[in-house]
Design brief:
- This protein is of the alpha/beta class.
- The protein has one domain: Metal-dependent hydrolases (TIM Barrel), CATH 3.20.20.140.
- Helix content is 29%, strand content 23%.
- The strands form five sheets. It has an eight-stranded parallel beta sheet with strand order 5-6-7-8-9-12-13-14.
- Helix 4 crosses helix 7, helix 7 runs parallel beside helix 8 and helix 11 packs across helix 12.
Length: 428
């Protein structure tokens, strides 16, 4: 893959493409992106592939700076580039952004000129500030100070279990003054305990510690009641079961401003995968039953679900190549998300809703400008996908030196042929 200083901005001529027009894909013999009268031109024969708006990623963690032995911003931006993402909402479990100095340090890392893969200013990166110091439950973060920066989209929990109800109230009362949305991973700490998989038939059969659905629903109910009482907008990250979506539906009827997303792998997998005892399936929140998976799809189809989350979490090989219950949870997704989900997603809800879930809705949720402009009917950033060309996932598909994904070695139904982000074309 070419580095930035090896790339020249050119006019691009897409040939034999199906180009997104805001409603459907139009057959185009030639689709031109003119970036300058005096620039050289480059042709890209798409061979009938789809040219669609680039994606926006929710649930993205690159671990740096605290765990740059695992992954770096350079790796993460490379992953976004490979997967066709023009932006992302960043929240690191290892690096809580709980004051202005930490936000400045994080922004510097993202835009550091010494990044080996220096595409920083090509991506629209938003941040979730922490609502508590160190993602704990002892003291509040400097939310008012953080909210002054337009790159801060809201306040999150770093994927930690819900703290005490009293602390949530204090945080939301203080954060309400910022007008920002709170992002929660609905999970009750005491009910989760040491669980690592869905509590059900497979956890019982394998003798593994399970996390019941009520660990999610009880936490979600608590947050929704607090949001109703305080009139604070909230978002649920990586919802895993239909009961939580029912709570969201009922809350909206009461006028509560609540949005939610579901994780990529929760739509692709169910807990039957645990039979292999492969730690690649150790993902939090846990992959639940086939019935739960179908309930999430129904939530997408009826509009309850606002967006699809990537839940991109790198883990060292040495932390995955152990017994399942001793492994570190997490999975990479940015590089392979689109070819993995597109075919089933578009067949269930249509192309327009699929693009909304992967690109437009997540961008708008955090205040980013979508890649497709509804008024001009133009795309600023694009990804070229062949929906019918299969692809076998290998380690070389992933950025960095980690490759923790349950899809490693699996055959995906589609393939990314290239990306066009911030004026730079890359062919794969």
């Amino acid at each position: 893959m070419k580095m930035r200083n090896e790339m020249n901005i050119k006019n691009v001529i897409f040939k034999n493409a199906k180009v997104w027009n805001g409603n459907c894909f139009d057959d185009c013999d030639e689709f031109c992106v003119i970036q300058g009268k005096d620039l050289a031109s480059e042709e890209f024969d798409c061979n009938g592939a789809l040219v669609m708006p680039a994606l926006f990623g929710l649930g993205v963690d690159f671990m740096e700076p605290l765990r740059d032995d695992v992954y770096t911003f350079a790796d993460g931006l490379d992953a976004m580039h490979r997967g066709g993402f023009f932006g992302a909402l960043y929240e690191s479990a290892a690096n809580p952004i709980d004051d202005a100095d930490k936000l400045s340090a994080m922004k510097f890392r993202v835009n550091s000129p010494d990044l080996e893969y220096n595409f920083a200013n090509r991506f629209d990166i938003k941040f979730l500030g922490a609502y508590s110091k160190g993602f704990g439950s002892d003291s509040l973060a400097e939310m008012m100070e953080l909210a002054e920066d337009e790159s801060v989209a809201g306040f999150g929990d770093g994927g930690e279990a819900i703290p005490t109800t009293r602390f949530i109230r204090l945080a939301m009362e203080y954060g309400k003054m910022t007008g920002k949305r709170f992002f929660f991973q609905p999970l009750d700490k005491s009910l989760r305990k040491h669980g690592c998989v869905h509590e059900g038939a497979y956890s019982d059969m394998l003798g593994m510690k399970g996390i019941p659905r009520i660990a999610e629903t009880i936490a979600a109910h608590t947050v929704l009641e607090m949001a109703r009482f305080l009139q604070v907008p909230v978002h649920f990250k990586q919802v895993t079961c239909g009961e939580t979506l029912d709570l969201v539906r009922e809350a909206r009827k009461k006028g509560i401003d609540v949005t939610c997303d579901v994780g990529l792998y929760h739509l692709l997998l169910d807990d039957s995968c645990l039979e292999t005892l492969d730690s690649a399936y150790h993902i939090l929140p846990p992959i639940r039953s086939a019935a739960d998976r179908e309930a999430l799809w129904k939530g997408i189809e009826d509009g309850t679900v606002n967006a699809i989350s990537m839940n991109h979490t790198p883990v060292l090989g040495q932390d995955t190549e152990v017994n399942f219950e001793d492994s570190v949870p997490g999975a990479l997704s940015l590089e392979i998300a689109l070819p993995a989900i597109w075919k089933e997603l578009s067949s269930r809800v249509g192309d327009a809703r699929a693009i909304e879930l992967l690109s437009e809705a997540p961008a708008r949720l955090v205040g980013a400008k979508p890649a497709f402009d509804c008024f001009s009917k133009k795309m600023s950033d694009m990804v070229v996908l062949d929906p019918n060309k299969t692809h076998v996932v290998s380690k070389k598909d992933f950025a960095g030196h980690v490759s923790n994904s349950p899809l490693l070695g699996k055959t995906l139904p589609s393939s990314i042929l290239g990306t066009f982000i911030s004026g730079a074309l890359t062919k794969f």
